[in-house]
Automatic annotation (TrEMBL):
Mg(2+). Can also accept Mn(2+). Its cofactor is Mg(2+); Mn(2+). Its EC number is 2.7.2.1. GO terms for cellular component: cytoplasm. It holds the Pfam family Acetate_kinase. This is Acetate kinase. It comes from Sporotomaculum syntrophicum. InterPro entries: Ac/propionate_kinase, Aliphatic_acid_kin_short-chain, Aliphatic_acid_kinase_CS, ATPase_NBD. ATP binds at residues 14, 208-212, 283-285, 331-335.
């Protein structure tokens, strides 16, 4: 069976076609600027030259129509007809408390996604548009929703409740949900394989470090805690997000800067984090370069970043009562040689000892711990699309 994996953003559609007989990727692609003049589709079939098509696409349905045309194109397509596509898997950000695993999408599932728009206003609407566009164009196959929040639904109330009046949880479901769950799921299972242990017997700390960043503590096959919360703003310092701060700062700056709630939300989500601290960029590579050239603010930004990650490692060590391995993944985690080294410095009291030479690797699955390190240090490239394809295949069967 061949699976089409779709990740619909507000003005983009990312896709892959995966042949589940051997889990090979037949094609990857990106539709950009959906609903904006100058739309493009970049289609990369395996073993062939990439194809770029420029064509205005007014909405997600038009974008998906073009994707389906490309997939069956005699010259650069990867299937003879859409009948070869057995099911479609949709990356969906927020499923609230309703879903602890992937599900076949029906009207009730779409209602839950719609109900979660208030708490995921940037992601759930385009996810839903992508689902409905694909259902319209491919009505005879199963469509599966794979939720970023699902993997974290094993958390206990002690770790997902906020110290707020209980009625805001009862009435508005204000609690910690966590995100990047598909990535944490994939790399933690791969880590168990690398340890040679059953997933249910492991204590694992996963670090998804990209422009958005989160960590998870996993024990006995369940997420104990994760750093993102009610929204993706909580937790680590990120490219443009502040991460953990004193909530009083929000009210103080709203008053001093004359911001309304929408402006404050933008301020802490889009103007803070590494960008706000460094004044250089939200891209870790630019900040590292500036820091190496003596930029003091860039140096401080990196030190704040390291300290937040180290703090969560210590936190999770305590909650897990030890750890078998820590896992670095996502853009910064997979490629940031110096970032990984700085994070692991001075953690030998926890049994974390990095081999600096082994660590000189980018984007490869490898153990970079010293031989005598009690805790293994893994670099594992994430593969969220494969998780989506596997869940879709399982449910479609």
């Amino acid at each position: 069976m061949k699976i089409l994996v779709v990740n619909a953003g507000s003005s983009s559609i990312k896709y892959q076609v995966i042949d589940m007989t051997d889990e090979s990727v037949l094609a990857v692609g990106l539709v950009d600027r959906v609903g904006i003049p100058g739309s493009t589709l970049k289609h990369e079939p395996a073993g062939k030259e990439a194809v770029v098509i420029k064509q205005d696409l007014p909405d997600h349905t038009a974008g998906m129509e073009l994707v389906l045309e490309v997939l069956v194109n005699p010259e650069y397509g990867v299937v003879k007809s859409m009948d070869e596509i057995g099911a479609v898997g949709h990356r969906t950000v927020h499923g609230g408390e309703a879903f602890a695993q992937s599900v076949v999408i029906d009207d009730e599932v779409k209602k839950v996604i719609r109900d979660c728009i208030d708490i995921a206003p940037l992601h759930n609407p385009p996810n839903l548009m992508g689902i409905e566009a694909c259902q319209k164009l491919m009505p005879n196959v199963k469509h599966v929703g794979v939720f970023d929040t699902a993997f974290h639904q094993t958390m206990e109330p002690a770790n997902y409740m906020y110290a707020l009046p209980y009625e805001v949880y009862e009435e508005y479901r204000v609690r910690r949900y966590g995100f990047h769950g598909t990535s944490h799921y994939y790399v933690s299972h791969r880590a168990a394989d690398m340890l040679g242990k059953k997933f249910e017997d492991c204590k694992i700390i996963t670090l998804h470090l990209g422009n958005g960043a989160s960590m998870a503590a996993i024990k006995d096959g369940k997420v104990v805690d994760t750093s993102m919360g009610f929204t993706p703003l909580e937790g680590l310092v990120m490219g443009t997000r502040s991460g953990d701060i004193d909530p009083g700062i929000v009210f103080y700056l709203m008053d001093k800067l004359g911001m309304n709630p929408a402006e404050a939300n933008n301020y802490f989500n889009k103007k803070s984090g590494l960008l706000g601290l460094s004044g250089v960029s939200n891209d870790m590579r630019d900040i590292e370069e500036a820091a190496n050239n003596g930029n003091a603010r860039a140096q401080i930004a990196l030190e704040v970043y390291y300290n937040h990650v180290k703090g969560y490692i210590g936190n999770y060590f305590a909650k897990l009562n030890g750890c078998d391995c820590i896992v670095f993944t996502a853009g910064v985690g997979e490629n940031g040689i110096d970032i990984r080294r700085h994070i692991c410095e001075d953690l030998d009291a926890l049994g974390i000892k990095m081999d600096v030479e082994k660590n000189k690797v980018r984007g490869k699955e490898v153990d970079v711990a010293t031989e005598d390190s009690r805790v293994r240090i893994f670099v594992i490239p994430t593969n969220e699309e494969l998780v989506i394809a596997r869940d879709t295949y399982r449910l479609a069967k």
